[in-house]
């Protein structure tokens, strides 16, 4: 197997020949790409999109990092909320948003003058996960150097640490539109409230990686939920109008809107075939090799035990009205792979 650094080095002779522009969100992937390209002596311009779906705190962090690196940065205003697919928050929202974004970035490059190859920070993991935006990237002819080099997320972290990239363990922060269940209208004021609430939650010590989601009821998903932190968290949620939020501790893979709150009391959890779920939820077959694993019996609200057979039947008969969790069924998958 070729080492990650060797794979990256093999690509550099091609990249060094052209001025490059990188779609720069400020996340780990785009930071690593800019850092690695400049480390190799490439001519790089960072393009950062701002809009109601991007928290202001993240845009400011991207600006600070670019200034600290001496990286030329061009900001581009991109408001996807007027796009029909985004306005109704359909399953094509990411595709429509990314398609419009690539056009905006190309227009900005043309207005700035000169000729640059547009790149993005997609890595090899993105090619096998459910990423509707990847189709727009391919259609726009955007170059994805990290994916071309076959670099996976963990390899980016490892290489970044060895090369001196700051915060190589940076957690992913997808755009605010992903916090809303499909079908929920992404109003600017609602997105602003979500951003403000997450900014205040991020300031609390010990919460770890988290998302504040609307399903449409608010649900706080966090990797770590220290017991002593709960009052402060609830105070933040109340202050931003998300009082009464449910809790989910851990890396949930997916969930559907439910008719009842499964975060309190004794929730019923379904164990299902991840491939079947992804196909039915998105209309697209999964490229992941996920097999059905034996369902574990769980008590219902009356304390009765549901057998694996009954859980399998429930998957078919109650799919549309059960919130679904795929935690632990297919370890290589993350919640971002199949989140509705």
Name the descriptors.
340 residues; four-stranded parallel sheet
Describe what you observe in this structure.
The protein has 340 residues and is α/β, with parallel strands linked by helices. Helix content is 39%, strand content 11%. It contains 13 helices and 9 strands. It has helices at 4-15, 28-39, 56-69, 84-87, 93-112, 132-139, 145-148, 153-163, 188-202, 230-239, 274-282, 308-317, 335-338, and strands at 20-23, 44-50, 73-77, 117-119, 210-214, 218-222, 246-249, 298-299, 305-306. The strands form 3 sheets. It has a 4-stranded parallel β-sheet, with helices on both faces. A 3-stranded mixed β-sheet has the order 5-6-7, covered by helices on one side. A two-stranded antiparallel ribbon has the order 8-9. Strand 5 (210-214) and strand 6 (218-222) form a beta hairpin. The longest helix has 20 residues, at 93-112. The model is unreliable at 251-307 and 310-340 (pLDDT under 50).
């Amino acid at each position: 197997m070729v080492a990650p650094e060797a794979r990256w080095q093999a690509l550099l002779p091609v990249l060094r020949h052209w001025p490059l522009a990188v779609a720069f969100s400020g996340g780990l992937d785009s930071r690593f790409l800019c850092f690695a390209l400049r480390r190799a002596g490439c001519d790089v311009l960072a393009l950062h999109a701002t809009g109601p779906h991007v928290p202001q705190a993240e845009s400011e962090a991207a600006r600070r990092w670019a200034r600290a690196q001496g990286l030329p940065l061009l900001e581009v205003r991109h408001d996807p909320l007027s796009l029909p697919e985004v306005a109704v928050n359909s399953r094509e929202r990411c595709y429509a948003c990314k398609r419009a974004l690539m056009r905006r970035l190309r227009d900005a490059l043309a207005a700035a003058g000169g000729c640059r190859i547009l790149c993005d920070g997609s890595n090899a993991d993105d090619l096998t996960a459910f990423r509707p935006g990847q189709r727009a990237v391919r259609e726009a002819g955007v170059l994805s150097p990290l994916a071309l080099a076959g670099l996976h997320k963990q390899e980016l972290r490892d290489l970044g640490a060895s090369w001196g990239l700051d915060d190589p363990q940076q957690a992913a922060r997808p755009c605010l539109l992903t916090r809303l269940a499909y079908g929920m209208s992404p109003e600017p004021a609602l997105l602003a409230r979500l951003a403000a609430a997450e900014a205040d939650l991020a300031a609390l010590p010990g919460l770890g990686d988290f998302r504040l989601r609307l399903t449409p009821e608010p649900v706080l998903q966090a990797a770590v939920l220290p017991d002593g932190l709960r009052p402060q968290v609830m105070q933040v949620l109340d202050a931003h109008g998300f009082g009464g939020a449910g809790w989910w501790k851990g890396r949930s893979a997916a969930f559907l809107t439910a008719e009842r709150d499964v975060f309190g009391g004794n929730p019923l959890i379904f164990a299902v075939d991840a491939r079947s779920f992804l196909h039915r939820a998105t209309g697209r077959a999964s490229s992941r090799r996920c097999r059905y694993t034996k369902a574990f019996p769980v008590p219902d609200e009356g304390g009765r035990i549901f057998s694996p057979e009954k859980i399998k039947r429930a998957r078919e008969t109650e799919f549309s009205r059960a919130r679904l969790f795929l935690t632990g069924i297919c370890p290589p998958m993350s919640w971002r792979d199949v989140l509705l």
